[in-house]
Amino acid sequence: MAEEKESKGEKKYKYSIIIPTYNERLNIALIVYLVFKHLRDIDFEIIVVDDGSPDGTQEIVKQLQQLYGEDRILLRARAKKLGLGTAYIHGLKHASGDFVVIMDADLSHHPKYLPSFIKKQLETNASIVTGTRYVKGGGVHGWNLMRKLTSRGANVLAQTLLWPGVSDLTGSFRLYKKSVLEDVISSCVSKGYVFQMEMIVRATRKGYHIEEVPITFVDRVFGTSKLGGSEIVEYLKGLVYLLLTT
Questions:
Q1: Could you report the per-residue pLDDT of 103-113, keeping only the tens digit for each?
Q2: What pLDDT is stored for residue 4 in this prediction?
Q3: Which end of the chain is flanked by fewer CB atoms within 10 Å, N or C?
Q4: Phi-psi label, residue 14: left if phi above 0, alpha if psi -120 to 50, beta otherwise
Q5: Where are the extended beta strands (E) located within 66-223?
Q6: Going from the N-terminus, what domains does the chain have, and what CATH number goes with each?
Q7: Backbone torsions φ then ψ of 70, nearest 5 degrees
């Protein structure tokens, strides 16, 4: 009976999954399918924030709306690329769930981990559950040695300077209580890849309860990585900014 009540308790919550996209025509249908596959007994909506993709991503999303329903797949498009941070802010405005999940569209964040995120939150009442590559059970697949060293080095540097209290500071696969995300996101000024780092540092400084779930990050199968030299420079600038302001 206790397990039955717990199961019913899980179903009363709704989860809004925000997926920013830019040229993800080859990935978006698969990621949506996998979310539905792994969250069969969960009340959720998927909010796709597309930044004017020229490859037809929005047309694919509209087809998915016909298949799954416009109440389950929400397309909230923007005219052009405006940054990752503002994409989450835009999606959050349209979220009706009690919790908000943020994840990438390129299949690097596998939806099979979503039940673990939800379970961890229900067990611990955490304000934030974040996926991590850097604990037992986590890892990275498809990266060359240089990229692994760059990512690991970035995390070690940030850990040393900022003491964020989490093992994977640059990860972007997270579950938030909606009210917590609204609070934390209003404090952030970053717009690019530094945004994820600033979010978790701000949350730590505010005293929010953060839990981690091990994940294996898989390099994108289709499309081109959007991480380049300019993003690395922005990361270093963001690190200095957070060191001085938090």
A1: 999 888 999 99
A2: 45
A3: N
A4: beta
A5: 73-75, 99-102, 128-132, 139-141, 174-177, 210-214, 216-218
A6: 15-244 (3.90.550.10)
A7: -70, -15
